[in-house]
Design a protein that fits this description.
The chain is an alpha/beta fold. The chain contains six helices and ten strands. The strands form two sheets. A six-stranded mixed beta sheet has the order 6-7-8-3-9-10, with helices on both faces. The radius of gyration is 17 Å and the shape is globular. Bound molecules: adenosine-5'-diphosphate and magnesium ion. Adenosine-5'-diphosphate binds next to strand 2 and helix 1.
């Protein structure tokens, strides 16, 4: 059974690397446009949960449903096609393509989805402005600060107007002022485009940005009151 009206829902996810389980019966669901903060100690399974939800890692057992699709039944090609059109990703260290300018980095996912270069760059410029980094378009990732890089990474994740944004400790390498600003920009932009956000974070004030908080502990998901 998947929770009524959810966009993305996982049930009973198990995934082991060697003898210890990374996920041990994890359940999760998120509604369209909802921002869910995922907390939990290091090694508890947060990244593995995100990777299973996004169809990057196939769980040993359990199911992931996304809209009408059962992600866990799809082949690699179908899952990567879905990821390109429907999902956006932000990681702890931007993972921008170092050889491309920041503008080209943001335009890249649009190009991959078939948008023509001029139009992709026009949209990319708008996203950079929205993330308050319109000045860095011509620079390469190695020439800008960590905070600017994460803003570019958020612009890239949102440029294709994904239905779900997966953000894995996107502010983990930033000072708290930059971190809070990036989270504000990310969640505001996601709300404006009705994208759901699965946000792994250790930010203390995360409740200000999220609709709901969950905790991953020993490969299982609990709500903030400690219930399953
Ligand atoms: N690719 C992998 N190979 C081996 N072990 C892994 C791999 N990914 C995660 N693990 C292990 O699974 C557990 C959960 O990891 P992870 O999901 O990265 O936790 P978190 O993101 O909460 O820190 C840890 O014990 C980690 O060492
Ligand atoms: Mg992690």
């Amino acid at each position: 059974m998947t929770p009524e009206g959810s966009l993305l829902a996982a049930e009973g996810l198990c995934k082991a690397y060697g003898p210890t389980p990374a996920l041990d019966g994890a359940d999760f669901s998120i509604h369209p446009g909802e921002v869910v903060a995922v907390m939990g100690p290091s090694g508890s399974g947060k990244s593995t949960l995100l990777h299973c939800l996004a169809g990057i890692v196939r769980p040993d057992s359990g199911t992931v449903r996304y809209g009408p699709h059962t992600l866990t039944d799809l082949g690699d090609a179908q899952r990567s096609a879905l990821r390109r059109t429907d999902f956006g990703f932000v990681f702890q260290f931007g993972q921008l393509v170092p050889e491309l300018t920041c503008l080209e980095n943001v335009a890249l996912p649009l190009r991959l989805n078939g948008t023509k270069r001029k139009e992709a760059e026009r949209q990319a410029r708008e996203w950079l402005a929205r993330l308050e980094v319109d000045g860095v378009g011509a620079q390469r990732p190695g020439e800008i600060s960590g905070g600017q890089g994460q803003r570019v990474a958020v612009a890239r994740a949102l440029a294709t107007t994904p239905r779900v944004v997966f953000a894995d400790e996107p502010t983990g390498a930033l000072d708290s002022l930059n971190g809070e600003r990036v989270l504000t920009l990310l969640t505001d932009a996601a709300r404006d485009t009705n994208a759901a956000v699965v946000l792994v974070t250790h930010e203390a004030r995360v409740a200000a940005y999220s609709d709901r908080e969950i905790v991953v502990r020993d490969g299982r998901v609990k709500d903030m009151a400690g219930r399953i």
